[in-house]
Amino acid sequence: MNRFLKWAGVGVALLIGAELSTGYLNFQRGSERGLALGWLTDRVSKKLAGPDNVTGISLDGVYQPNAEPLRLVLEQSYTAEFAAFAETARAHSCHVALLYIPTVTAFPQAHAFFTGLAKSSDIPFITMLPRRTRYAAEQLYLLPADPHPSRLYNQLTARAVAGHLSNAASGECDRAAPAQRGVTGPWPANLTEMRETVPDLAFRFNSDAFGYRSTGAPASDDTQNGDRTVLLVGDSFTFGTSLSDQDTWPAFLQRAMPQATVFNAGIGGISIVRQREILERAVKDGPFHTIILQVNDTDLQGLSPAYWRHMPNPPALSEDIRRALAAIQ
After folding, report:
1. Beta strands 192-195 and 290-295, pairing class
2. Most buried among 9, 58, 230, 308, using CB within 10 Å?
3. How confident is the model at residue 10 (pLDDT cuts 50, 70, 90)?
């Protein structure tokens, strides 16, 4: 019996040591996200499994001349998904806008598509492309290590969005913010952790009481700055990959609009299908005054089969997408 207890104690000590070591390797990951050993097991199992047997296409490939049939199908699929997003946004806000932030390599076809989509949907379009041409790429992106927007580009984006919102017709708004909003964001509430998406570019990530990345808005779960609530849905360009909380454009927007409460619902690597799911979760407790969807050149690529496993359901025209992709490979 004593021998059994001895070995049991050794086993427990080893588990505790492994958990602490793994937690250190994972930048002291917050306990809200579960055991660090679970994270390590997941990483190892994915490495052993090798690459997923899925079909994808590079960003450059989407805009190659021979890929035009695929791009047209992806655009039709995105348009159908966006129509559902816009319908939900209009039903739960007073103002909806589409924001385009170009990638390092800006594709004219992507800008033209989103411009036309906003026009046909009668939704204001905010484009950051003119700012892209006024500065060197090294100023606007975290190059050469990381192609995500820099602090400067985030600051310029917030300035453009704040200008748009100040010029937008206010009028009467019957979409009053709820007296109390629950945890409707994409993250656990009050989470704090270190992340390192790119080597040597570690950053601290904090979520607020509502489950959104912190923007410096009031932390209380029943306190908001009046009825001017702004929900920002997007990808890593909105989340602010490789940047601290205060250097993201949603945080800059919060400081530019202290009379409002800004919610950052950005998540890296997602497109319109996941974004619509995030929107539907966000509005379940009540409406927002303003909802803005941020897009970039990768959004059409994000509808290819390589990304379907991250979606609640395959995108519209999924079989047409698969056939069009197979035709060019």
Report:
1. unpaired
2. 230
3. confident
Specify whether the CB–CB gap between 297 and 106 falls below 8 A. Answer: yes
- Give 235-253 pLDDT, tens digit per residue: 999 999 999 999 999 999 9
- Strand pairing of 203-206 and 192-195? antiparallel
Kindly state the DSSP code that residue 246 receives in the 8-state scheme.
Answer: G
- Tokens 């041409």, located at residue: 133
- 223 falls in which pLDDT band (50, 70, 90)? very low
Tell whether the model's pLDDT for residue 32 goes beyond 50.
Answer: no
141's tokens:
């992106």
> 230: which strand partners?
262, 290
Q: Write down the pLDDT at residue 57.
A: 78
Peptide bond into 130 cis (omega under 30): no
Q: How much is the pLDDT for 170?
A: 59
Q: Over pLDDT 90: what percentage of the chain? A: 64
What CA–CA distance (Å, rounded) separates 262 from 258? 9
How many Cβ atoms from other residues are within 10 Å of residue 101's Cβ?
A: 27
Would you say 237 and 265 are in contact if contact means Cβ atoms under 8 Å apart? no
* Inter-residue contact 267 to 235 (CB < 8 Å): yes
> Rounded to an integer, what distance in angstroms lies between the CA atom of residue 144 and that of residue 235?
20
Q: What is the mean pLDDT of residues 133-160?
A: 96
Instruction: Give CB contacts under 8 A, 24+ apart, made by 161-169.
Output: 161/97, 161/99, 161/126, 161/249, 161/253, 161/292, 162/253, 162/256, 162/257, 164/97, 164/124, 164/126, 165/95, 165/230, 165/257, 165/290, 168/95, 168/97, 168/124
What is the rounded CA–CA span in Å between residue 22 and residue 15? 10
* DSSP run (H or E) holding 80: helix 68-91
Q: Is 38 left (phi over 0), alpha (psi -120 to 50) or beta?
A: alpha
